[in-house]
Amino acid sequence: MKTSPYDQIPDDWNIEFLKDVCVPSGIQTGPFGSLLHQKDYISSGTPIITVEHLGENRILHEDLPSVTDDDRKRLSRYVMQKGDIIFSRVGSVDRRSLVRDEEDGWLFSGRCLRVRPDPKKIKPEYLSWFFGLEIFKDYIRRIAVGATMPSLNTDLLSNVPIIVPSLPEQQAIADVLGALDDKIELNRRMSATLESMARAVFRHWFVEGEEVKAWEVGKLGDDFNLTMGQSPPGETYNEEGIDIPFFQGRADFGFRFPTNRIYCTAPTRFAKEGDTLVSVRAPVGDINMAAEKCAIGRGVAAVRHKTGSRSYTYYTMKFLQDDFARFEAEGTVFGSINKNDFQSLEIFIPPVDVVKEFEEVCFPIDQMIENNEKESRTLASLRDGLLPRIMSGEVMVHS
Questions:
Q1: Can you tell me the distance from the alpha carbon of 77 to that of 67, in angstroms, rounded to the nearest whole number?
Q2: Angle between helices 124-131 and 134-143 (to 10 degrees)
Q3: Closest to 102 (Cα-Cα) out of 74, 40, 151, 60
Q4: Buried b (16+ CB within 10 A) or exposed e, 317-341
Q5: Which of 63, 287, 351, 378 has the fewest CB atoms within 10 Å, i.e. is most exposed?
């Protein structure tokens, strides 16, 4: 073994600067503001990604702005191709995503940096996993410039050291980690499809059905129990898993369940397992579900229908997202909704037996989503635990 800037690595692995394993001019900043303005975005055309679209090694496809064919031609040097890796240039500079088949030909914005590996020297999939190492992320955060808003530039990124095993070893590493990641992505897509099915059932039963017109119109507080969060003192928070998971706002919200990152030793307000969690401060209206009993801060409310129906509660809150968005837009500094306004939202109040029937139909769908999410978290934990051990050569994989 020998010493690298990150960890001990096998003697036959190399250490290279990033610029030396990329194609010429492969590390490039996105178009400056003078080349592309917000007003140039259109609803349908060539998608352009920005920092918000950089997920965990995957580009997120929600809420994508687009540009015209003429703008795409004008900005052709900012077109992405499969195998590129896109970094956040400002703020969360450790965020990166690999460009896959479906994003080939899209553009990247000025808040991003593109890395284009030379596949004869380094496998893009391997390199992107290397960028996911916590020890590498720490390194990137340390070298980023700017006290208030960290930022990267092409020179900084060009000269970061990279651990380079042989190409067959790189491929083997990428295959192992990629198999876990592909299963997580498959689960996510299955869950998204299942949720779409349940939302369609909800809309048919509680929004578009003829019988809805005969139902009483009431206030949300008439039909749902609502707990507004309250924030304990900051010194009671920890990241060591001591006591109970705590959610101050929507920062840790996931597809369906939040990720436990912060814990609290002196909680004051709680959500029960299966409660719907709603972000009530900046931004208002993001929705998740409590996977277990947890503490909630002032940025979160916990909601449950008075019958205890968890699926009906969740899809009702999803349906109300346009109403929540109004409070986000009306905030003088940042959006928020208080308990009185929340409870006063107008809703149809269906008969209890209809709610229970919906629960019988959709709760099994939500159980499948929950099972997918639990499996994905197990796989992600395995992947994240395996990543540093593989990248240091402690665990050897072979093609």
A1: 14
A2: 70
A3: 60
A4: bbebeebbeebbeeeeeebbbeeeb
A5: 63
Number of C-alpha atoms within 13 angstroms, CB side, residue 337? 29
Whole-angstrom distance, CA of residue 132 vs CA of residue 144: 16
Positions in the chain short of pLDDT 70: 147, 329-334, 399
Tell me the H-state helices in the chain.
Answer: 69-74, 124-131, 134-143, 154-158, 167-203, 220-223, 310-319, 321-330, 339-343, 352-391
pLDDT in tens, 361-371: 999 999 999 99
- What is the CATH number that goes with domain 2-164? 3.90.220.20
| Residues facing 54 on adjacent strands | 59
Q: For residue 109, what is the DSSP state? A: -
Alpha carbon 157 to its chain centroid, in Å, reads 24
Largest Cα separation within the chain, whole Å, is: 76
Given the structure tokens 């940025």, which residue do they identify? 299
What kind of architecture, by CATH, is found in domain 216-349? Alpha-Beta Complex (3.90)
Cα Rg, the chain, nearest whole Å: 24
* Three-state DSSP state, 133: coil
User: Is the entire prediction scored with pTM above 0.90?
Assistant: no
pLDDT of residue 105: 97
Delimiting residues of CATH 3.90.220.20 domain(s) in the chain: 2-164, 216-349
| CA 62 – CA 380 distance, rounded (Å) | 22
Return the amino acid letter for 270. Answer: F
CATH 1.10.287 boundaries in the chain: 166-197+353-399
Instruction: Tell whether domain 166-197+353-399 is in CATH 1.10.287.
Output: yes
Secondary structure (3-state) at 277: strand
